């Protein structure tokens, strides 16, 4: 009888231990979506912070680049102006060269006569 009581006692202990384990499993399964949500939310926040840092760095780099960009634009404008002046001068040189050639032809004709 004592042995039977001991066995029943062990059975009861195992039953309660099993019930505790099943309750723990149920509680953890219920908690799982919240844990997954919290993990994803943390990852989202980290990515958001990284994005904000990169955006800030890009903004700072653009601000530092503005003076150089303006200088490049100014130099490009100067280059275009110089190219236009070169074209005008090249046209003037051609016209002057043609006038010189015409005068030389006139002089050569006078010399032949």
TrEMBL record:
<dbReference type="GO" id="GO:0000724">
    <property type="term" value="P:double-strand break repair via homologous recombination"/>
</dbReference>
<keyword id="KW-0175">Coiled coil</keyword>
<dbReference type="GO" id="GO:0005634">
    <property type="term" value="C:nucleus"/>
</dbReference>
<feature type="coiled-coil region">
    <location>
        <begin position="37"/>
        <end position="92"/>
    </location>
</feature>
<protein>
    <submittedName>
        <fullName>Structural maintenance of chromosomes protein 5-like</fullName>
    </submittedName>
</protein>
<dbReference type="GO" id="GO:0003697">
    <property type="term" value="F:single-stranded DNA binding"/>
</dbReference>
<dbReference type="GO" id="GO:0030915">
    <property type="term" value="C:Smc5-Smc6 complex"/>
</dbReference>
């Amino acid at each position: 009888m004592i042995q039977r009581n001991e066995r029943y006692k062990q059975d009861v202990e195992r039953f309660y231990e099993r019930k505790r384990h099943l309750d723990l499993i149920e509680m953890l399964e219920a908690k799982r979506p919240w844990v997954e949500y919290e993990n994803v939310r943390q990852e989202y926040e980290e990515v958001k912070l990284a994005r904000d840092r990169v955006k800030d760095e890009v903004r700072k780099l653009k601000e530092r680049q503005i003076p150089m960009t303006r200088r490049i634009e100014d130099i490009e404008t100067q280059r275009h102006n110089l190219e236009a002046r070169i074209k005008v001068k090249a046209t003037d040189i051609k016209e002057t060269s043609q006038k010189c050639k015409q005068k030389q032809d006139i002089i050569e004709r006078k010399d032949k006569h």
